[in-house]
Amino acid sequence: MKPKSKTDQNTLLIAGGRVIDPSSGIDRDMDVLLLDGRVAELAAPGVLKASARETLDAKGCIVAPGFIDLHVHLREPGQSHKETIATGTAAGAAGGFTAVCAMPNTSPVNDSVEITRWMQAPEREAVVRLFPIAAATVGSQGEKLTNFAALRKAGAVAVSDDGKPILDDDLMRDALRTAAKLKIAVVQHAEDSRVTAGCSMNLGPTSFRLGLRGMPNSAESDIVRRDIALAKQTGAHIHVAHISTAEAMEAVRQAKKAGIRATAEVTPHHFTLIDENIGEYDTHYKMNPPLRSLADRQAMITGIADGTIDAIATDHAPHAFHEKQVEFERAAMGIIGLETALPIATTVLYHHFKLPMWRIVELLSSGPARIFGLDGLGTLAPGAHADVTIFDPEKKWTYDASQSRSKSRNTPYDGWSFTGKIAATIVAGKIVYKG
Amino acid sequence: MKPNARSLLGTEQLSVPEIEAILKLARRMDPKSAPQLLRGKRVVLLFYEPSTRTRTSFEFAAKALGATTTLITNTSSSIEKGESLIDTGWTVTSLGADVIVMRHPNSGAPYLLSRFIPVPVINAGDGLHEHPSQALLDALTITNHKKTLKGLRVVIVGDVFHSRVARANAHLLSKCGAEVIFCGPPDLVPDLSATIAPAVIACHDLDAALQDADVVMSLRIQKERLAGRQISLEGYISRFQITPQRMKLAKPDAIVMHPGPIVRGLELANEVADGPQSCVHEQVANGVKTRMAILATVLKAAQ
What we know:
The complex is a heterodimer of chains A (about 425) and B (about 300).
Chain A: E1 11-21, E2 26-35, E3 38-43, E4 54-57, E5 62-65, E6 67-72, H1 85-94, E7 97-102, H2 113-120, E8 129-134, H3 148-153, E9 158-160, H4 169-182, E10 185-188, E11 201-202, H5 205-210, E12 214-215, H6 218-234, E13 238-240, H7 246-257, E14 262-266, H8 294-306, E15 311-312, H9 321-324, H10 341-352, H11 357-364, H12 366-371, E16 388-398, E17 417-427, E18 430-434
Helix pairs in contact in A: 4-6, 6-7, 7-8
Chain B: H1 16-28, E1 42-47, H2 53-64, E2 68-73, H3 85-94, E3 99-104, H4 109-116, E4 121-126, H5 132-145, E5 153-157, H6 164-175, E6 179-183, E7 200-203, H7 206-210, E8 215-218, H8 223-226, H9 233-240, H10 244-247, E9 255-257, H11 270-273, H12 280-302
């Protein structure tokens, strides 16, 4: 094959930005040259100018490895009135995500090679990379393990019964053992659903006042502790989805100190909002795990700052109007989150809590890539996939949910002002979103 | 979207002057010869849960003021066919309702309705949350016997966790300067309950709670809710039933109240329920007067 020249059609130069690449420790002004879907070269500003056909001006912006969201619900197959793979990934692109990992609680549940492949087929018209997470048990019924090896081969990057926690100790141990052999993580939605039946929010003064049954913190932390013990026993990798309580955070912190392979993701809403924000039964603040107390929210910030947290994940959960605008206890759980993740991270973590920008970039790129072993993603090292997210950390703007690329509008952030905005999203060297 | 300002959704949102104005109007109301303030008005009673006294009381109150009433229940309407609350609200509004009085098993349902429809909503009990007309009629009853709510010691005994009456009363009494003591077993009176409003205390010892009480308010115990709890039915009766002996711990002029329906032999000893300190019948009578005042206030504000 004839080697392609750097001046052909497949080059893109990102010039004038500040490159933050946690995987290689880079944080300085650099230009980035993309060639044939790969990162070709990083160089001091101006050096690469002549070699590219197309140049993207990144002045005033941060140039980061493409963001990866470990936890989204794209609702296909089966619930396309809420979202499709095409609309969900378009929202992902607008949020700076170059890859999203789709949870298996579709209809039918993604517990098969067929559905795993169907989701990745070109006909789905995904705008960014899509990695399925397959169900850990058949139908997510918590009875019989799925065929992890076949699902892995078909493209699944992890297994999970998200939304339906695996409570049975023996089954969870089996899942971890099997996953360990394949070097994939078991992702657990940690909730002891035996004690949370009928609950629609966090247990605390607000739940008592509103007359809503509340989920205690222990319903999460008891399962996290159990899972960590099983991960220790089996040498497997447990990944705690959407961690929300101070007690679970402490359990993960201690597990890491003890050398156990435990990782954790946190959602923007759990480090931003608290249960009191429900106000007068606003269902846009109803999600599972629920928004917790101020102390728990503070524990999320501490966990982000001290390294206990490995990734920010959105738990993007689209629902139609008629599924949300009903009695609070009957309303569907969850909010959309792909387009607001970066602006919340910059506004809350960087501008308010003064956390370093590289840490935010790490939690959105190299952190999640490491958890699911996504080679060549989450990094700008030469040879890596040319997935790049460019954002302006100082840009002030107001979110208008009616303009969302998602099919759904269930967000508490409509009309919120943010500081920090996605400027461009590049997947495999192609610009898929420009803000 | 703010809830409809003319609605009565809970005592939590009422100011002390608003409470006083409703009570003042209620004292003047006579169901037998009332001014026809609501002539030509249509009051819809939207009941998603069974109710005897609240429903009848609102119906009598509306009729006494000259309004017409229509009862819609979840078992004899489109609600049964799966119509959403918002759609039902719009249907009722389009039919010409001037006010909707709603009882609903889900906490917060009246907030949802009032956010979406333009007519005022009166909360006639929502889930475990609030029952503002009950708290107002209780306040009317108390002030018929005591000069003021300020400084009173009110003991609310029973299943506080599941009680919208307890929550509505706690907000109202706390705002008006009374001290509220929630009393019952820890399962039914969690320590969290004391956080609901200032000057509210949670207590698990009835004898201690009753010391110097001005008002003893007993709540209904649903036997099935004691199932699986730490306390047995017998245990509850021996520790938390209001008996003549226990009433001696309260002030001599203390009154006894109960929102009904009373489970005989459980919450109150018969001697107390039917005794001279009992105000339970007066409460029911005050219910009509209070609801007349509420309807008049809400519809006047809506004009």
